[in-house]
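Dear Dr. H.,

I hope your travels went smoothly. While you were away I took the liberty of generating a structure for the chain from your last submission, since the lab meeting agenda had it listed for discussion. I wanted you to have the full record in hand beforehand rather than looking at slides cold. The sequence, exactly as received, is reproduced here:
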Amino acid sequence: MKTLLILLSFAIALPAADLIEHAHAHPDGKAAFSFDASAWQNSDATRHLPIGVFDSGIGGLTVLEALLTLDAFHNDTLRPGADGRPDFERERFIYFGDQANMPYGNYSAVNRTDYLRELIVKDAIFLLGRRFWPADGKAPQFTKPPVKALVIACNTATAYGLEDIRQAVAAWKIPVIVVGVVEAGARGVLESNTEGGIGVLATVGTCASGVYPRTISQTLGLAGKSVPVIAQQGSATLAGAIEGDTAFPESVSAYAMKEARALAEAYCDSNPTKPLQTIVLGCTHYPLARSEIDTAFDSLRKEEAFRDLIAEKRLFVNPAEATARELFRELAKARLRLKTAETSALEHHQFYLSVARPEQSGVRLAADGSLDKDYKYSRLPGHLEIEDTRNIPLTPALLPPASLKLVRERLPAVWKALSR
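The corresponding predicted structure, in token form, is as follows:
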């Protein structure tokens, strides 16, 4: 085993190698950032496990909403087409939002992508394991079930951590499906079958990674399609405005117009030969503002500079919906999808989020009890003996008022599950 771990450390880039070794060193899953790999030894029992979904905060709940409401396949025959029944009606989900360590997009700006990658693999390990903290935080408990699939419902986490998680899952030799929102979004672009230009609206961190242009180009190229001009625009404001954060006092429409204009200008600067036609909503919040974004592009077309470079009718690709479709196909292919008469090992969906753990030595907190900003973005990977956050059950009472309003009014399926 020691030789294997040494070889892995050379073959797999840090931080995945450290976490792979750490999990091997704690096979009972009792230590932080570890899990019990025996949970997947029985293939029939594996099929009855829930599905894990994670994001850096609550934005990924829009992906969970798509998972809970998707009706794109016939449940009995698995053929494409709606049958009036949610495609995942028999499945149960465990959602985790790493609220204490967000926003993930800021780590690249301070050259801490190595620590960000560690956080992302830790998110996956939490969902794979049974360990969580009760709300009072006295001691961890071990009654959370592991999962049979991991859905990375965060564009930034997919950009920086998808390959690390896949390498780790392979090294651990566990039959867990891994689906990332960016790859699914790129396949959504392919399936749209349009020939115009492509624009990506995302966060600053996601755009800095270049993951969408790269993945879309690869997906189209492998399918034998020509790759049109792809422009992107990273926003530091639109997601907060959609969530109702008071730090962004203007309307969602105002911020949408600002980002649409910036994307249109970036597209024009690329010397395109065809109008901008496909818009990828590359942030989990953005599908909630699709109408405002579309209206913004309509307004821009009235300006002479953009009239011929923005298509009259645009196609929006929602990676959340594309992710739900991809997960259905992957579960069916791996024979891990619950059959019509079967039930999950989990009776109801579960929700968790991370909070600061002040009792950890050396941790620094802000006035509101969250992690101090300078402390948060100065951490280095490899210190797996430090557990400065704890993952606790998420209830509606823990959501900020603006987030609570967004979930209650815009994500009805999630709200029903969360308020149970």
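Two observations you may find useful: Confidence is low (pLDDT under 50) at residues 1-12. The chain has 16 helices and ten strands.

With kind regards,
E. W.
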